[in-house]
Structures are given as C-alpha cells and as structure tokens.
Specification:
One of its GO terms (molecular function) is transcription coregulator activity. One of its GO terms (cellular component) is mediator complex. Pfam families: Med10. It is found in: Nucleus. This is Mediator of RNA polymerase II transcription subunit 10. With about 180 residues, this protein is an all-alpha fold. It has a domain at about 1-85. It has helices spanning about 1-25, 30-55, 60-80, 90-100, 105-140, 145-165. The chain is elongated. The model is unreliable at about 1-25 (pLDDT under 50).
C-alpha cells in the first residue's frame, strides 16, 4: 500500500510539472479552467477525508494518510496552476465571503449604487433643462427679438455641429464611433 501512495505522489508531482510547462503557452481561460478543476478535485478530496476521519478506526489509518497526501499534492498543484492565472478579486468580495455572505451581494450593491447615481445625475440634468426652458420663457417676454436671434444662432450652430460630427464619425454626445473589425 505504501507503493500506491508513493506512486500517486510521484504521478501528482509529474503532473504538476507538465501542467506548469504547458500553461505558459495556453490562454488564460484554459488556465482558469484548470484551476477550477483543481478546486473541484480538492473539494472532493476534502469530502473523502471528512468521511474517513468521521469513521476513523485503526484499520483506516493508511487510507487516511493516503488521502492527506493526495490533498497536499492537489493543493500544491492548485498553487502552481493559480500562479498562471491573473484574476483580481475586490477585497469587498473576499470580506463578504469571510463573513459568510453571498458575493453576488457585492455586484447587486454596485449596480444599485450606479442606478442611484444615474438617477441623481438625471435629476440634475432635468433640473437644468427645466431652468433653461423657464429662463428662455422669461427672456422671451422681456427681449423677444434677442431670444429669436439666439434661437437662430443656436439652430445654426447645432446643425453645423451635427454636420461636422457626421463627417468625423463623432456621435452627438461627443464620443467617437469605433469601426467594427471583422
């Protein structure tokens, strides 16, 4: 039985070396998939270890040691694979997980925060539009000729800006159109 544990350890060590060599040429998505597979294997090993420990007897000492060795080997493999993955996780997500909460709460909170900021900004822009409209109405009553000239200048300027934007592939909001590459 010692041969089995040594064979599995050497196979895992050999597997670890080959994975590290091939990962350099592979894409990040493949590296992530390998880490995910290693995590799942580690969870399965932990489950087996839990079952062995919960029903421990003197006869199950050797399987316990083999499972511990397999767990250590898989954790080593996982660490090697993880070095090839560049994933950035916000600390808030890690703290949520440490607190036993769902990390999806972080995403939901960020989206709700963006929605709230968007509503505030929309309220401000609507307020300025309303103020502009009110000021134009008041100015039109006091200076009708000047307001008419202002509207003509504004219309001419808007038409010129639109024509210039179309010729330069600029969107009305000032963003530049990006040509799709096929």
């Amino acid at each position: 039985m010692d041969d089995i544990s040594q064979n599995s350890s050497s196979a895992a060590a050999a597997g670890n070396g080959s994975v590290t060599q091939t990962n350099a040429a592979e894409d990040p998505k493949q590296n992530l998939n390998e880490v995910i597979n290693s995590i799942q294997k580690t969870l399965a090993l932990l489950h087996q270890l839990h079952l062995t420990v919960s029903s421990f007897s003197l006869a199950s000492q050797l399987p316990l040691l083999q499972r511990l060795n397999a767990l250590v080997s898989e954790l080593d493999t996982m660490q090697g694979l993880a070095e090839n993955c560049n994933i950035q996780v916000p600390m808030e997500v890690v703290k949520l997980i440490d607190d036993g909460r769902n990390p999806d709460e972080f995403t939901r909170d960020i989206i709700n925060s963006c929605i709230a900021r968007n509503q505030i900004t929309k309220g401000k822009t609507d307020g300025f539009k309303s103020l502009r409209k009110h000021l134009l109405e008041e100015l039109e009553q006091a200076f009708p000729d000047d307001v008419e000239a202002y509207r003509e200048i504004r219309a001419t300027s808007a038409a010129e800006s639109k024509r210039l934007a179309q010729s330069q592939s600029i969107l009305p909001n000032g963003d530049v159109k990006i040509k799709a590459e096929h």
